[in-house]
Records
---
Amino acid sequence: MRRVLRTAGVVAGLLALTLSATASWAHDPNSPEGKEEFRRIMENYEPAWRAADQVSTLAATACSGGMAGTYPCRNVDLLSVLPLGSIGGGNGNSMWGWTDSSTGKEYIIFGRTTGASFVDVSVPTAPVYLGNLPSYNGTSSSWRDVKVYANHAFIGADSISSHGMQVFDLTRLRGVTTPQTFTADARYTGFGNSHTLAVNEQTGFIYAVGTNTCSGGVHMVNVQNPKSPVNAGCVSNDGYVHENQCVVYHGPDTAYSGREICFNYNTDTLTIVDVTNKAAPVQLSRTTYSGVGYTHQGWLTEDHSRLLMDDELDSDLPGTKTFIWNVSDLNAPVNTGVYTSPTIQATDHNLYIIGDKAYQASYRAGLRIFDISGIAQNNLQEIAYFDIYPAANNTGFNGAWNVYPFFASGTIAISGIEQGLVLVKHNPVVEPPTTTVWSDTFETATGWTVNPNGTDTATSGVWERGDPEATTSSGTKQVGTTVSGTNDLVTGRLAGSSAGTYDLDGGVSSIRSPAVTLPGSGALKVSLSWYLAHGNNASSADYFRVSIVHNGGTTQLFQQTAGATDRDGAWATGTWDISAYAGQSVRILITAADASGASLVEAGVDDVKITQQ
């Protein structure tokens, strides 16, 4: 698809800059061969950003005043750090956890370039390194993945054609007190390299993806007898898969209740497959989304109705993005919204969901924790973080590769590429209650003013309140559904005979809220839902902007610029701090511009709110 082609260009450009290399695209990026080629480019792209080791070794340190020692934090305390040099060396990558049901002890199996380390984290302030399982045949890889089933660890590695999947009996760790060099109990050779592994503990199957088999798709392995894995089949029709999650489905789509369903992340789509019959898997849906860069990984809510997804290469957009999906209909999942971080621009990587919390590894921004209790309304709130890479919060591949939040003790493990194993604990603080100062859902006229300064230049598609009509041009441009109710603010609500009939044209259009008197104290924030859509004839001169008009003038809070790529309309949310204007009378100013000529540009706004905490 065109967005994949855009991503290919971005990656090729970065390679030219950082690796003095160029990407030669011999395949259609939508084909299995093209997806595999894209993955190989990623193998060069990621390490190029990695810096020298950055680690601060501290004893247990509470998060106070936004810091735990040298680490920025919010509501997360540091328990301990084990630098890479103390657990086998090399660079860190993925990891997984194991709880010994006989002893209650907790362990981390930590992936490194040259092997997997075993760490007893039962006393998280004093973790104990127990030893190393070397990579098969002394090989090395930046990509190693671990999953656990029935007291056994299963370990795969990418870029090593002979590695296969190592199997290690974790009960061998009982009684170990000094570091050992371990050997595998078994090795599965049905594939050589693998990018990641997923496990369904209910059924006893491993799902390896990105292998040298199954066109890079899902290679299914029966591990019910852990030391004797058996090839169970392939899911290959959609080509290369980067990550996946496979579950016995118990969500709202009753047609598939009790079926084993895999949610695959296929570089540019969410692809859902019924794998109940391993000999004849059935693809239920294949769905792309607006803003696609490189579909990476995601996780289901516990009721299987929603899903959060990370895109690893959407960093051309402002703010770290987390995509929200409604998967209540497995044949027709819908990307309902996007959470946009108001504070960081880091690349997000892996996330997991427990109850109403999501735990995300965001590379240079470390661990981020979200309250997802409002996910059905596309409402996520960041409530805590622990940043293991204090040097920066921008895009790049340093810092937190993975997080493991599933220990009953509450210990959260973070695997740092340069840092090693970082153990932390979420220490939630009771926040002051949030009250709504002012809000507008646009169901009634409340006094917004179009062209308030008399300087707008747009000739059509100016801002108006109303019931929007959907338009399409190589995908949705004007979104025909609002976030709530019937009306929103939109740049020309009518569809007309084509997408370009009533879109924004000719320059700038602005609309300003009525005056709102802010309280004199507290944490004040403004939030809203928005989208900017455009065709590939747009440019960076086209934009969507949110500003606040206050006693001292006008201050820009947010801006999204367009570009010469096609971008479909999809609702996103944003929140910005306006505490600096406490006690003042303020107005919210929304501006959109088609300033690059006759390009296709649409924008929308809904559910504006100002809160005090």
---
Amino acid sequence: MNHEAERYERFFLIVSGVFLVGFLVVLAYTSIHMRVMLPGRVGTIEAKPGESLAAAVFRTPPFNHLGLTKVGPDEYQAVYFAQAWAFFPREIDLPVGARVKFIATSVDITHGFFIAGTRVNMMLLPGQISEETYTFHKPGKYLLLCHEYCGLLHHTMHAWVIVK
């Protein structure tokens, strides 16, 4: 029996176990204490036979009323859709302290939805509805970017969230 090999195997297993436990602790801390959650798929939009996905999106609430809607004191709902190579609406204005539920989908291909300087980060898949909520505590002009390569003019795909 090779005791030297067993010693290295034991060391490797211990180090691997420590890393595994460490990753699980960090995951639990960020999801519970920092409330960092992965944005989930809320629902899907089904096109009827002979109907384009874009037409199905625009007949499906809340995408039949794009833009910003006030739903309570300092609470808003921002409904977006993405298509090559633009977000709609192009700009929204919010007050400082606004809590916003972003609801978004794509009508053509996979797009990203990332608001720089925040933790808002979603993947927009065609026909799938994504949601994420964020509270804007600081005034500023926040850049909304597509972070998934979506074609030739991907670098031009952006919108603005303005907090006053």
